Amino acid sequence: RTLAGGGESFVSLDDGLSIMTRHAQALGYDAVILFLDELVLWLASHAADVGFVSREGTKLVKLVEATNADRPIPLVSFVARQRDLRDLVGENLAGAVQSQFSDVLRHWEARFHRITLEDRNLPAIAEKRVLRPLNEAARQILKAEFEKILAVRRDVLDTLLTTSADRDMFQKVYPFTPALVQTLIAVSAALQRERTALKLMMQLLVDRREDLESTTACVLSSPA
Q1: 102: closest CA among 94, 110, 90?
Q2: Are 181 and 131 within 8 A, CB to CB?
């Protein structure tokens, strides 16, 4: 509030979101979509300061419920939730403070619908973002190499497939194996943010690019 009167400086979050939607409408857009990927991680980085998390976490409600209702077009927000703040803060608080903090989290969480991304989506995501063939010729190379893999002993193939995958899934993630993909899923919760399962798969392809022929047929796009 102090800086808001200083000319070209800050405005409140409510007013800023209103200005954003009015500007987008003037440009001819029908809605504003916000992808807030790091927001919860930012709050988690301040987990030791319960007052900060409570104060800033409450502001998330303003994405849905506005004090300034002058938003001529819809504002749609997707907030990635990589961590549960209760696990980071709640257990270490005294009873009254813990109850207050839980109330704050429930207050803003209740305003958002939850979309759960299942672990089983990793093969499909990897197929599109890491293992996409360069062209049709490259697709045929990958197919031919995969057919060679299917010629191994049955017990070896069963181990690579695990108990929950089939050959179609194997072909989607080749030159990786379903066994490796399941391992990456199992350890994904323990990985640091900069070492995601997709980035590890990318690094494996890069490191073996010179001696694993089938990787040269893939598009090595960045899985940011």
Answers
A1: 90
A2: no
User: Would the pTM count as exceeding 0.85?
Assistant: no
Cα distances (Å, whole numbers) of residue 27 to 5, 22, 31: 27, 9, 11
Q: Over 70: is that where the pLDDT of 143 sits?
A: yes
For 145-177, how does the pLDDT look when each residue is reduced to its tens digit (9 = 90+)? 888 888 878 888 888 888 777 888 888 888 888
Six-digit token string for 60 = 């998330």
- Structure-token pair, residue 32: 């504003």
> 170-223: per-residue pLDDT in tens?
888 888 888 888 887 777 666 655 567 777 888 888 887 777 655 444 444 444
Do 181 and 122 form a contact (C-beta atoms < 8 A)?
Answer: yes
H helix or E strand, kind and range, residue 21? helix 13-26
CA distance 204 to 209: 8
Instruction: Please give the distance of CA 163 from its chain centroid, rounded to a whole number.
Output: 27
CA angle 23, 26, 27 (to 5 degrees): 90
Round to the nearest angstrom and report the end-to-end CA distance of the chain: 36
